Amino acid sequence: MNNKILIVDHMHESIIEMLGDSGFRPDYRPEITRAEILNIIDQYAGIVVRSKTRIDKELVSKATNLQFVARAGAGIDNVDYQEISSRNIKLVNAPEGNRDALGEHTVGMLLTLLHKINIANREVKQGIWNREGNRGWELKGKTVGIYGFGYMGSAFAKKLRGFDCTVLVYDKYKTGLSNEFIQQVDLQTFQKQTEILSLHVPLTSETKYLFDEYYLSQFPKLRILLNTARGEILSLKALEKLLGSSKLIGVGLDVLENEKIDQLNLEEQQIFDRLAKKENVIMTPHVAGWTFESYKRINEIIVSKLQKEGLAHVR
Asked: What share of the chain is helix, strand, coil (3-state, %, to 5)?
């Protein structure tokens, strides 16, 4: 019986014991290169990845004994799902592991922008005591639109319950989402009424650059835009134009189109530099779901799902 698992990214140290207790033989090699993976992947029944390695046709064709791919996180855009499905390879991911972290981070970004916390902090540390210039806005009474209502969108909605704001939800593929705290609406209503837009859709061929200049123009009341999903669903060029219109009062980005910010091309660098200079734009390095708690919890979710799928061999 092949019970070897290749772990190709840095994980919380608990993963070794958890997998071992489930009857696996984990091979923890976070520094491994793609070329090295291709050379040895045929020896393993499973592979655990974050975002460093793309699970594509090239890799899967060499993974002759692979039974499953475990994505340590929520997004699966680095996995060719059609390819692994055609070879009866199962996929497990762990959106439950970091949804609370992402929900809190998104709220934090929103409150920072509304109350100008980042600007006020910088000014006070520079000896500037400017109360009027740092007057903020309350979240109470505002209309927050959550675009996409999976694990992450629903977690953000849950965190908003105590703020007395109106929460609208649009999800193309789900129905029956309304409850005492949220209202599911059609796209036209969502666009017409949303003041604070938070993006929570995966990166697919359908959503890639969905939020371009035209699409964003359909939100007449939009004042704050938050993206903690995937960078490539939002065109930064379109975002910059929207900011130039003085329509937006704040933007929070945890993800970028190209997150290798030391390898941007000329146009990407110019757009990035201009956005970085704007005080009403805050950026974080794809850490919305990345907390000390979620780091371990993701392991627990992955191992639990492997057991439920009948892939583990619990001692």
From this structure: 40, 15, 45
Helix, strand, or coil (residue 68): strand
Residue 1, pLDDT > 80, answer no
φ and ψ at residue 13, rounded to 5 degrees: -55, -20
Mean of the pLDDT values across residues 57-80?
94
Q: What is the pLDDT of residues 125-166, one digit of tens each?
A: 999 999 999 999 999 999 999 999 999 999 999 999 999 999
Question: Model-level pTM?
Answer: 0.93
Q: Are 165 and 146 in contact (CB under 8 A)?
A: no
Nearest CA to 188 out of 160, 219, 163 is that of 219
Length of the chain: 315
Which single residue is written with the structure tokens 């490539």? 232
User: Which one-letter amino acid corresponds to residue 174?
Assistant: K
Rg (CA), the chain: 21
pLDDT for res 267: 96
Long-range contacts of 131-136 (CB under 8 A, 24+ apart): none
Single-letter residue type at 278: K
- The dihedral region occupied by 176, where left means phi > 0, alpha psi between -120 and 50, and beta the remainder, is left
